[in-house]
Design brief:
The complex is a heterodimer. Chain A is of the alpha/beta class. Chain A has ten helices and eight strands. Chain A has an eight-stranded mixed beta sheet, sandwiched between helices. In chain A, helix 1 crosses helix 7 and helix 4 packs across helix 5. By secondary structure, chain B is an alpha/beta fold. Chain B folds into two domains: 191 residues, Rossmann fold, CATH 3.40.50.970; 109 residues, Rossmann fold (3-Layer(aba) Sandwich). In chain B, strands 2, 3, 4, 5, 6, 7, 8 and 14 form an eight-stranded mixed beta sheet that branches. Classes of the chains: A alpha/beta, B alpha/beta.
Chain lengths: 285, 384
């Protein structure tokens, strides 16, 4: 009997499965898309590093058979910035959650986008803090119930595509875990895009967000995404705010060119210092 | 291994401690620095920003010290010798990543040019009040190495040493300067590259697929692997096994923490770097470090002129604390005198090791150095 290899298999540390994610969680789906996007992009797995922060999505680094760094809460981006600056040949992906990247790590997020650090940032946005039991976060929609907003959330949420685009990201897309084909394609585009590329993935947390907010189980949430999603490529990111149960605008919103941090640094120092400028070429330790 | 000539400014210079620290880092082969401006340490990164583009180094000014202290760790795993530089408030922000560096065994150097605290405190004035923070500031149990220069020359020399320790033991190493030493200008001799010893990073010889990131040999220090070379290793701040995989239970925790602390604890003697002067036959011994080790000299001379036998034990390595020397000296003397620009920090270590011998703390809240008369008074009290 012949066997067919699961295309996701070569990306996974099979010896670490089963994973910690709940039934109906969307993170695994995003990893599946990620594996297929890497396949499609032709990127050498040996030259791909993944950096995560802390939280449910922060565990992705540990399950991917890549050079993988599970760092501290909110700080995956500055770690990735350091790694990328000294390893120009390495593709560096930050894979983390909304609380990690946007609350505690928000400052690093906007500055990396501003600098146009050549990394891909994948944010699985489940609208809550999953690992710690379902607290309110900076992406939780108004009125949503969480353990620390027991009477409903009254803080305005960030619109992540708007934040990324206005901070300087060169590629910005949003999809939900229902849109697996589009997500895979967006990931491939982001991985091969030079500069700070950003994908927000709306993803269910049935255990901690869905149940409290009567969204049903994981499958119900997928059906809900299907119903609420409106594809608008090129939409102005000012207009893509999410609400508790309103439309979810998805699509590729930004795809533009701008020198990366490394390119800007090299070009500028070359211009100012001429032959005196020496680029860091590889490991020296 | 010897220093890469590209980074070595061989010759005699008249520079301050901050600049000398920068040159020490360059000579040590540091090629990635991330920092955030903060008085009185800023001159270190200002000089780095000027010097790095000509020696193949990358400097980035990050958005805060939290970012700086982890960007360097990305740089370290990217194969560079790395450093960040700060002072009190920034040092406080970095504590989380001292723990990360300890847990992931990431070689890196933290320079702290100490100023008065707590909080914003005295931004432009000296203190030595972060000595315990360097050892205990991050949560959890751990061991680190800290050196403490008392001159611009030592800012150069000990910064090189800090890089070598970081690589040899795979720990964060601290260069605990103070504002006086950082801003004091003196002659600094930078040797020829061939006279500067560099400890290279221990890299794995295992083939991809066979590498275990946290399997250590008798040195207790595991070998690193280059990123991007096919080893596909995992590192995490979680308690982990030899594969680097999370392994969160009491037995794994006990095993990991034992190795992480033993790799320093078992090498205390090798790591001891102290200057002892007049200890043999001394009635009392002054224990000092950094700028204070120079402030005490007139008082010691004065006492000696009056025929008293006063020894000086100067700490160049403050952590791990050279407790074996304090224990050995204690029975033969009347008292230790411990002046420091804080309200009594390293004196606690001396007290811990002094047995029944009297220990006199000479505290100072910072902002300036001790008056010579204060030292003299303490010596007189100790000699009674």
């Amino acid at each position: 009997m012949s066997t067919v290899e699961n295309p996701v298999e070569r990306l996974l540390r099979s010896d670490r499965i089963p994973h910690i994610w709940c039934p109906g969680c969307g993170i695994g789906t995003t990893v599946n898309c990620f594996a297929r996007a890497i396949d499609d992009s032709g990127i050498d797995l040996d030259k791909l590093a993944i950096v995560s922060g802390i939280g449910c999505t922060g565990r992705v680094a540990g399950y991917t058979r890549l050079d993988s760094f599970h760092t501290t809460h909110g700080r995956a981006i500055p770690f990735a910035t350091g790694l990328k600056l000294v390893s120009p040949d390495l593709k560096v992906v930050v894979y983390s959650g909304d609380g990690d990247l946007i609350a505690i790590g928000g400052n690093h997020f906007i500055h990396a986008a501003r600098r146009n650090v050549d990394i891909t940032v994948i944010c699985v946005n489940n609208l809550t803090y999953g690992m710690t039991g379902g607290q309110v976060g900076p992406t939780t929609p108004l009125d949503a119930i969480a353990t620390t907003s027991p009477y409903g959330n009254y803080e305005q949420a960030f619109s992540l595509p708007y934040l990324a685009a206005s901070s300087g990201a060169v590629y910005v897309a949003r999809w939900t875990v229902y849109h697996v084909m589009q997500l895979k394609k967006a990931m491939r585009e982001a991985l091969t895009k030079k500069g700070f590329s950003f994908i927000e993935i709306i993803s269910p947390c049935p255990t901690l967000y869905g149940r409290r907010n009567r969204r049903g189980d994981g499958l119900d949430e997928l059906k809900d995404y299907k119903k609420r999603s409106v594809i608008k490529h090129g939409a102005d990111t000012k207009d893509v705010d999410m609400t508790f149960d309103g439309p979810i605008v998805v699509g590729k919103f930004v795809d533009r060119e701008r020198p990366t941090l490394q390119e800007a640094m090299d070009a500028h120092l070359q211009k100012k210092l001429g032959a005196r400028y020496k680029r860091l070429t590889g490991p020296t330790a | 291994m010897h220093a890469d000539p590209a980074g070595v400014l061989t010759g005699a210079h008249f520079i301050d401690g901050d600049h000398a620290c920068c040159e020490g880092a360059l000579a040590a082969g540091c090629r990635f620095v991330a920092g955030y401006p903060i008085t009185p340490s800023t001159e270190v990164v200002e000089r780095i920003a000027v010097r790095f583009p000509e020696v193949g180094g990358v400097f980035i000014q990050m958005e805060d010290e939290i970012a700086s202290s982890i960007a360097i760790q990305g740089g370290a795993w990217g194969g560079q010798r790395v450093m960040t530089v700060t002072s009190g408030p920034g040092f406080s922000l970095m504590m989380e990543h001292i723990g990360l560096a300890v847990m992931t065994e990431t070689p890196c150097v933290f320079v702290n040019v100490q100023r008065g605290g707590p909080s914003t405190g005295l931004p432009t004035l000296p203190a030595q009040a972060d000595m315990m923070q360097a050892k205990w500031g991050s949560h959890g149990d751990y061991e680190i190495i800290a050196v403490c220069p008392n001159s611009p020359q030592e800012c150069f020399d000990l910064t090189i040493k800090a890089f070598n320790y970081a690589e040899q033991y795979r720990v964060p190493v601290f260069v605990m300067m103070d504002e006086c030493v950082g801003h004091m200008m003196e002659r600094v001799i930078i040797p020829k590259p061939e006279d500067i010893e560099i400890v290279p990073r221990k890299m794995t010889t295992s083939a991809p697929g066979e590498y275990l990131p946290y399997a250590a040999d008798g040195t207790l220090v595991p070998a690193m692997a280059p990123t991007g070379a096919g080893h596909r290793f995992h590192i995490t701040g979680l308690t982990h096994d030899e594969r680097g995989y999370p392994d969160m239970n009491a037995a794994a925790q006990a095993k990991l923490l034992k190795r992480l602390t033993d790799k320093i604890k078992k090498n205390v003697v090798a790591l001891t770097d102290i200057e002892e002067e007049g200890i043999e036959g001394a009635e009392i011994v002054v224990v000092a470090y950094g700028i204070t080790s120079r402030v005490v000299l007139p008082g010691i001379s004065e006492a000696r002129c009056q025929g008293r036998r006063v020894g000086l034990l100067r700490l160049r390595t403050v952590w791990p604390f050279p407790e074996h020397r304090i224990r050995a000296i204690a029975p033969a003397i009347k008292a230790f005198v411990v002046p420091e620009l804080n309200l009594g920090q390293m004196v606690r270590e001396v007290e811990r090791c002094a047995g029944g011998t009297r220990v006199i703390s000479v505290p100072h809240a910072g902002g300036t150095v001790h008056k010579p008369a204060t030292i003299t008074d303490a010596l007189v009290e100790a000699l009674q």
